[in-house]
Amino acid sequence: MLYSITHRTKLDYSQPITESVMEVRAMPRSDERQVLRQFDISVTPDAKASHHSDWLNNTVHQFSVLGMHEQIVIKSTCMVETRPSFHVLSELVAPIEGLIRDHRSWDFLQLHGPVMDDPALPALTQRLGLDRARCVGEAIEIATQRTRDIITYRRGVTDSASTVCDVLKAGIGVCQDFAHLSLALLRRVGVPCRYVSGYLNKEDAPELETHAWAEAFVPGVGWIAFDPTHGGLVTEQYVTVAVGRSYADVPPNRGVYRGEAHEAIDVTVTMETLEERARLTPYSASYARPRSQLGSRAAVIPPKIVLGLEQQIASPNRANSVVQQQRQQQQ
Known about the structure:
Elements: E1 2-24, E2 34-44, E3 50-53, E4 59-65, E5 69-82, H1 121-128, H2 136-146, E6 152-153, H3 164-170, E7 172-173, H4 175-188, E8 193-200, E9 210-218, E10 222-227, E11 232-233, E12 238-244, E13 253-258, E14 263-273, E15 304-305, E16 311-313, E17 321-326
Parallel strand pairs: 6-7
Antiparallel strand pairs: 1-4, 1-5, 1-13, 1-14, 2-5, 3-4, 8-9, 8-12, 9-10, 10-11, 13-17, 14-15, 16-17
């Protein structure tokens, strides 16, 4: 599939602030499952966004707004081609005991951060049959299908700082929490796995939001992406933006500003399927128009409003700076 995606974040402040410094993870990755065709990012008030690659090869844009301001608008646009996956879990027969467990997989086997150990995890792995799984495909299938037997999807209960312990205690969570719990279960039985942040295109969804899922490493195959929230493997409807050990590594944006103002965040995301399917090499230029723009030079794509956005704010420190972090949107 070929998608045109626009992600707009508006930050409003109750009074003027200064020295906003932010980093943004909005640029989709290019890998064996998808190719980034175009990308652009803009900031208002006018600020130049530089970028670098982090330790997992995610692209991170950063910018500073030093003067007085009461609003920041970050807009990213991209064109991404995704490809179908033909993996079958029953064919992933690599034994769990033979998985690589050295410096290359160490970070993806640890229970730390929000993916923390919990006294209930041993009993859960036994209850789900994970402790009896002999091959990695079987373990991934259990984590994909059975996480929903442990927690129920519900918004507004957990937040960006919620841990696996919090989610197990509440028995409720959203996609971020489903991903974290599946990571904890798989890591406990020795399967290297990582958190994924990105977009999910759902034709029947009234709102479009960013999403979270997970990937497990299979020797000889690579990273296998699965979605414990929806109970299936990732398809070409998913667009990956960033990967990490947990959500804490890859929030859509986070930063700090100087001032006493309260911050309000509004996010809109549009994800349009393009009319012309790309049949190009990874290095070819491409251009296609969204369906809504065909036949009309002034066509406007109606935004799908993102609901349920939350952020994490720490109290002002001695320098009157407030830390802000956008939560992973849920779908």
